[in-house]
Amino acid sequence: MAAERYELNMSMKCVKYMIFVISVTFAVVAAMLLSMAIAIGNLFDDFKSFIDSHFFVPPNLLIAIGIILLIIALFGCVGALKESTVMINIYGTLLLSVFILQLAAAITAFVLRGQVELMVRQKIFNSMAEYKNIPGYYNSIDTLQNMLECCGVNHYSDWANYLESTDVSMIEYPETCCSVAPENGQCPPWQYGCYKRLSWIISQGSVLIATGATAVAFVQILGAICAFMLARAIRRTKTLRATRRWHLQQSLGIMTKPLDQQYIGMEKSHEANVDPDKYLPTSPSVN
Fold first, then answer.
1. How many Cα atoms are found within 13 Å in the side-chain-facing hemisphere of 55?
2. Model pLDDT for residues 88-108, shown as the tens digit of each residue
3. What span, in angstroms and rounded, lies between the C-alpha atoms of 119 and 115?
4. DSSP string, 230-257
5. Please, what is the Cα angle at 19 between 14 and 21, to 5 degrees?
6. Which pLDDT tens digit goes with each residue over 218-259?
7. I want to staple 159 with a disulfide (CB 3.0 to 4.6 A). Which of 64, 77, 173, 193 is the partner?
């Protein structure tokens, strides 16, 4: 029994510290995941005029998952150190629940990635068509061209369909298309269109979200398995300790039933018809 108890204690300690290490690792990974999701969300926000609202769902969901993972990691560390079966079981259940959320975020990001090219192309063309009419589009398309150092959708010549030039031999385009400072109202434009560059940024952001969520999700499975193993080891060890304590109490007679009669020493009889010649233990000695 001593060998079994030693084996259980060692097993519980190994799994306990494994849970503690995994929980700390989750906290670090959750912080990295949170920072990545915030960065991607801010990047998408810079180009929100060219991105549909449902593209913000994966980064926002990943931000929520990162915060939840930080709380779960703290919960797991406390449960492992206190060897609480209830807390460890809740820890494992929460990890499995967040695993489902992360898979949903990864799948959503992969699905939306296939819609990026059509969305970006259409959004840029719409912004160019409304360039002179709506100030909002004016600011957004100029910001896009200035940040990505691009011009038009595929080429600067795309602006010929939206801006009229006084000189038929020249193509008019915004100043944000200029690769250098304009001189005498003229400047060489950027040779790259904005379509490919913006599509690449959004696609890579979606891939990062999906890859990060998937990688952390499968590590969570390991954490949940270790959590349930630890809960089982704690339960078995507590049962073994209780059994050994009961056997010890039995051996010391603490749990035995007390006697109904107590030993009573021989005393002088108080009966009236006592034989005076009969010797009793209380009679005086005859020397």
1. 28
2. 888 888 888 888 888 888 888
3. 6
4. HHHHHHHHHHHHHHHHHHHHHHHTSSSP
5. 95
6. 878 877 887 787 777 777 777 776 777 777 777 776 544 554
7. 173
